[in-house]
Structure formats: C-alpha cells, structure tokens
Design a protein that fits this description.
The structure is a single chain. Helix content is 76%, strand content 2%. By secondary structure, the protein is an all-alpha fold. The chain has a single domain, classed as Up-down Bundle (Rhopdopsin 7-helix transmembrane proteins), CATH 1.20.1070. The chain has a two-stranded antiparallel sheet. Pfam families: DUF6533. This is DUF6533 domain-containing protein. Keywords: Membrane, Transmembrane, Transmembrane helix.
Length: 291
C-alpha cells in the first residue's frame, strides 16, 4: 500500500464503521420493539400499513447483507452497487409512503389530496431514480482497489457527479417538508376549532412533527457532507438516513396503535362500569383516524 492510499483508506474505513454502527443500532432497536411489534403488528389483521411496516422493519437487514457480501467479494474491482442503492432508496420511499398514508388519514381520506400525493410520490421517486442511475453509471463512481487500500468500497472522484446525488436528498427533503406542512396546517385548523380532541388524534399530529424534526438533521447533514466531504466520505450519511427513517417510522406506527389500544380499553372499561351500575354513560371514541 503506498502512502497516497492512506487518506482514502481511513475515509473508507470510517464509512464502513458508521454503517456497521447504525446497523447495530437498528438491530438493538428491533429487539427492543419485539413486544410492541407482536401486540400491535403481528396480532393485527393484514393491511397495507402492516405490510409496509414489516418491509420497513426488516428490509434493512437484507440490504446490509447484500452490501457486505458484495464488498467482501475477492473479485471486487468494479462498482455494481446499482441494486444495493436502489434497494436502500426504495426502503426510504416506503417510509415516506407510510407518512403519506398517515397524512391522508388525517385529512379524512380526501380524494383531492390522494391525487396530489400520487403525483408527489412518483415525481420524487422518478427524479431520485434518474439521479441514482446517472450517478452510479458515471465513470467517476469507482471501486477502491483492495490490493492498495485493503477496503472494498465505492466512492466518487468528481464533485460534479456527486452533485447529481444531491438531487435525491433535496427531493426527499422537499417531499417530507410538504407532508409536515400539511400536518401542521391540519393540526392548527383542528385545535383552533376544538382543543379537546381525542388522544389518538393528538398523537398522530405530534408524532408526525417529531418524526420530521428527528430525521431533518440527518438529511441536512447529508447535503452538507456532499459539498464539503472528501471523496472517500461521500457515502458516509447514506446508512444513517436510511436507518433513522426505518427506526422512526416503525416507532410512529407502534406508538399510534398502542395509543389506539389504550383508548379502546378505556372505552370498554367505562361501558362495563356503566352496565354494571346501571348508568347511562355514553362514550364515543371515534376510530376513524387509527392507522
């Protein structure tokens, strides 16, 4: 290994460590969520949200395995990361689809909003796919030489090509910004009319906002790193963004369903007491906003 390879080696190793660290974090979070997942996901009937949750929760393990096998191959001399990158991007798209479904539910399944979300989702997805294709097909997307660096990885050698990758994250940031603005608008209108909404509805608004605030630093950091980071660190933020999307969205779903289960139990307890003591108590907890 020559002296010029040491900086690149260090950078690629840092990226590998970051990916391994976030995969460990994701594994730990998955284990912590087993009980809630069993109660509110596996025991529930099959719906689109349940399928999307399971994909979001377990697909990162598949992507990580493919990435490890690919990078550890002894003949790794050419970047063929198209499938891995698209697979990871598809996972982020699924998490955003869950956010779209939640927002669509908050707006009482408005058909006009559904049409708008249809164009938003496929516009962002189409632009991102174009950027990924352009980016990975570039001659400036190179594989590190394992004989000189000891690390099997891909990196960008041209800032202009890397700039194309920014399109993915900027479009992602814009799409999620639209979703959070719609949530804020609905929340302001709802609570200006009635501040005593049910807990499940309050949770839907609050959790959606906290999700955006939680993922925003990672997306912004990705954009900044793309401008200032050296070539070997160009991919340092991809794993954190994908993993944090999965973690936060999974928590959104289990927490919302947990709140719904508590309200159902509360309604049952009150009705049971009313029946036992001959009361005319009537409780109306609408399930229309449960996800």
């Amino acid at each position: 290994m020559d002296a010029q390879s040491y900086p690149l080696l260090s950078q690629l190793q840092v990226v590998s460590y970051i990916k391994a660290g976030f995969l460990a974090l994701f594994t730990y979070d998955t284990l912590l969520q087993i009980q809630q997942e069993y109660l509110y996901i596996w025991k529930a009937r099959w719906t689109l949200v349940k399928f999307l949750y399971l994909w979001t929760r377990y697909s990162p393990f598949i992507g990580a395995t493919i990435s490890v096998v690919h990078s550890s191959h002894p003949d790794f001399s050419k970047c063929n990361d198209m499938f891995t990158i698209v697979f990871g991007g598809f996972g982020i798209g699924i998490t955003d689809l869950i956010l779209i479904i939640r927002t669509y539910t908050l707006y009482e399944r408005s058909k006009r909003l559904l049409v708008f979300f249809f164009f938003l989702f496929f516009s962002v997805g189409g632009v991102s796919f174009w950027a990924i294709t352009k980016m990975t097909g570039s001659s400036h997307f190179r594989a590190s030489n394992t004989e000189t660096t000891g690390v099997a990885s891909c990196y960008f050698t041209d800032a202009g090509t890397l700039g194309i990758g920014l399109v993915c994250y900027i479009s992602l940031l814009a799409g999620e910004l639209v979703i959070i603005l719609l949530t804020l608008w609905k929340m302001c209108r709802k609570f200006s009319q009635d501040s005593s909404g049910p807990g499940i509805l309050t949770s839907l608004y609050r959790d959606g906002i906290w999700f955006y605030l939680g993922i925003l630093p990672f997306t912004i950091a990705t954009v900044i790193i793309s401008f200032i980071a050296p070539p070997g660190l160009s991919d340092i933020a991809s794993a954190p963004v994908a993993i944090m999307h999965s973690v936060l969205v999974c928590h959104l779903i289990t927490h919302t369903r947990g709140m719904a289960a508590k309200e159902d139990q509360l309604a049952y307890d009150i009705k049971e007491r009313a029946f036992r003591y001959g009361s005319d108590v009537v409780l109306d907890i609408s399930p229309e906003n449960k996800v």
